[in-house]
Amino acid sequence: MPTPKKGPRLASSPAHERLMLANMATSLFQHGRITTTLPKAKRLRPLAERLITFAKRGDLHSRRRVMRVIRNKSVVHVLFTQIAEQMEQREGGYTRIVKIAPRKGDSTSAAIIELVTEPVSPKKAVVKEAEAATKVAAATEAPVEETAAAEAPVEAPAETAAEETADKAE
Fold first, then answer.
1. DSSP H helical segments within the chain, as ranges?
2. Best exposed site among 6, 90, 99, 139 by fewest CB in 10 Å?
């Protein structure tokens, strides 16, 4: 068997890796979360998020493209009806990877990959930005007031010096 050209694979061949990822994606959409090794979870995330993006489109071509990967029609139906509806407001970041303790048998790093089902609250980001802007504005205003107060006495002697030079010229 020839060695793959694009780097190491999770399994023995690219075809086997595609099959493993398709099976893991099917299980993820069926159960909502799966426990696997960390490298497999990291390889599954882009595939699962791409499939959810197709499901959000909802047209026939997208359904057929998802059916190329996920062969179970009932899981595809759940993906297009329930999961896509939950992810409608979210603009990416549909999955979450949580590292857990290593496996007992071979002490491989394990992880849980799950669908993010919490509702999106865009207000949080806007509120954080507004608070940060208020803090920055308050921090910049305080030194400006202090420098204005410090400059005021400096200007008065300059005016008197200008008056003195005008008196000397006369």
1. 14-31, 38-57, 60-69, 73-78, 84-86, 122-169
2. 6
CA 137 and chain centroid, separation:
28
**pLDDT tens per residue across span 115-129:** 998 887 766 667 777
Residue found by looking up tokens 């009932």 in the block: 74
Q: Measured between alpha carbons, how far is 38 from 50 in angstroms, rounded to an integer?
A: 19
What is the reported pTM? 0.68
Which neighbouring-strand residues pair with 112? 35, 98
H-helix or E-strand spanning residue 112 = strand 110-115
Using alpha carbons, list the distances in angstroms from residue 131 to 6, 45, 125, 127: 46, 33, 10, 6
φ and ψ at residue 93, rounded to 5 degrees: 70, 45
Q: Does 159 score more than 60 pLDDT?
A: no
Would you state the structure tokens that stand for residue 11, as one six-digit string? 């399994």
pLDDT in tens, 39-48: 999 999 999 9
pLDDT band at 164 (very low <50, low <70, confident <90, very high): low
Output phi, psi for 108, to 5 deg: -80, 145
